[in-house]
Each structure stands twice: as C-alpha cells, then as structure tokens.
Amino acid sequence: MASDAKLRDADELIKKANKLTKLSFFKWSTDWSSATALYEQAAMAYKLAKQLEKAKDAYVRAAEGQEKLSSPWQAAKDLEAAGAIAKELGKFDEVLELYKRASDLYNECGMPQPSADALAKGARALEEANPDEALRLYMDSCGMLEEEGKEHMAFETYRAAMSLYLKRNRQLDAATVLLRWGLAADKSKAVHSQCKAYLSAIIVYLYANDFKQAEQCYNDCSQIDAFMNNEHGSCAFDLLRAYREGDSVGIKHIVKSSSVIPHLDHTIVRLAKQLPTGEVMALASSVSDLNVADDDFT
C-alpha cells in the first residue's frame, strides 16, 4: 500500500512538472525551475516505488531542465543517476549515451576530473555487457586526465582497464596500459607505483610468451634509475635471466620467493604464479641462436 501511495505521488509530481513546461493558448511562458525540482522529486519517489523505468525517465527530464537553467553540473549528476538505473534495467545502449553525455556536461563546467570519472563509471557499468566499449571509455577517461596533467587521478582507471584487457586475453594491450601507467606514475613522482607497473608489464609479456618484448621492456625501463635501484627491477632481471637459461624451476622459485610480486595487483600475481607458460628450454635455445646470429652479423 505504501508503495502504491509513493507511485501515485510520483505520477502527480510528473503531471505538475509537465504542465509547467508546456505552452498553450492561455499559457505563454514555462517554469523550468519549478518543473525541474518536481522531476527530481518524482525520480526519487519512483525509485522508492521500484518503478525504475519511470525513475530513469524522470532523471532525464530533470537533466533537460537543469540544462535549460544553465546548470550543466547538476544536469550531469541527474544523467549519471539515470545511467545507473539504466544499468539496473539492462539498457546498455542508454548507459553509454547517458554517461557520455554527463561527461560532456562536466567538461562544459571546466571540470575534467568529474568528466573523466563519468566515463569510468560508464565503463564499469558496461564491462560485462559491452567490454570493448568499456575499454574505450576507460582509455578516454585516462587520456582526459593525462591531457590535464592530472595523471595521478587516473591510477584506478589504468588498473581497471588493465584488468579488463587481461580478462579479454589481450595481454599485449594490458602491458601497454601498464607502461602508460608507469609513465603517469613517473610524472606524478609516484616511484613505487611506477616500479610496480613496469615489473607488471614484464610479467604480462612473459605470460604471453613474448620474451623479446619482455626483454625490450626491461631494457627501456633499466634507463630509469628508480626502477634499476629497486627490488622490482632486480626481480625483473632475475626472471629474465632464468628465462634465458631455460630454468623453469628457477622461474617458479623466483615468483614464489619474491618479496615484491605478492604486492602487485592480484590479476598480475595470478599470472606470475602460472609462469612459465611456454616451453622455456625452446625459448632459451631460440634466444641463444638469435644472439649468435647477431654476433655473426657484427
């Protein structure tokens, strides 16, 4: 009964709001200020009455009103609320549209962090239903913060994108995100995060059996004193040496006894525990042959 009363109240609020926004022969002006407040009240009442579709539509109408009132910030908040409800309803095309529009409105306010956050929220809502679109939103969110010099605010988004790439078995893309995260950490003077990101990237390359790329990554990162003079750099060196020697037992021992690997992101720890994933002796042989060929060429 209480739910029915809330529903009737919400319906009445919508009727009042609609009247305030419509022109007629006898009514030549609209009152969006009053109507917008009524739409927001109706949205909350519909949520309490478990009428999610109507709640979503009321938030969208409220956002429209906030835009007409030149309040893009509040309009974006209403659109985010509508996006969260659309996710509950399984309307994922609307989820994408609502969060992207919210992001645009935050941008209009000159607020890059809330704008990037809106994209990240949309990405999280889409991870299961549309992972490819979620990844695009995650990376757009990171890019927005990078452009503003606010890389330190993107760390959790880098992590989310990396994890989703790994779930999609796109290890090389995950490693690329980790390297991007490492660069962001460098710019943010977050040395510990930087070292973790670089070691994680090397582990991902090794998991993907791309020893050449893992070694190239290590060589690039070894130019950075913070990494080379850190336990993370030593761990990477030991792993690569064990791979070159074809020592699968040694690789497992390094992972098991490492003091730094257990403190990496849990998705990376899970990959590390599965190393080596390929035939290490064959890899060692191919590396040796490659070195001999390089010596002959020189």
Question: What's this entry about, in short?
Answer:
The chain has 298 residues and is mainly α. The chain contains 16 helices and no strands.
Please state the overall shape, judged from the principal axes of the Cα atoms. elongated
Count of individual beta strands: 0
H-E order = HHHHHHHHHHHHHHHH
User: Could you say what the CATH architecture of one domain is?
Assistant: Alpha Horseshoe
What is the CATH topology descriptor of one domain? Serine Threonine Protein Phosphatase 5, Tetratricopeptide repeat
Structural class, by secondary structure, is mainly alpha
Assembly type: single chain
Number of helices: 16
Determine the fraction of residues in helical runs and give it as a percent range: over 70%
Span between N and C termini? 87 Å
Low-confidence stretches: 292-298
Q: What does the average pLDDT come to?
A: 91
The CATH C-level class name of one domain? Mainly Alpha
Radius of gyration: 26 Å
- In terms of DSSP E residues, the strand content is under 5%
Largest sheet: none
CATH homologous group name of one domain:
Tetratricopeptide repeat domain
Subcellular location: Membrane
Pfam family, one: SNAP
Organism: Ceratopteris richardii
Protein name: Gamma-soluble NSF attachment protein
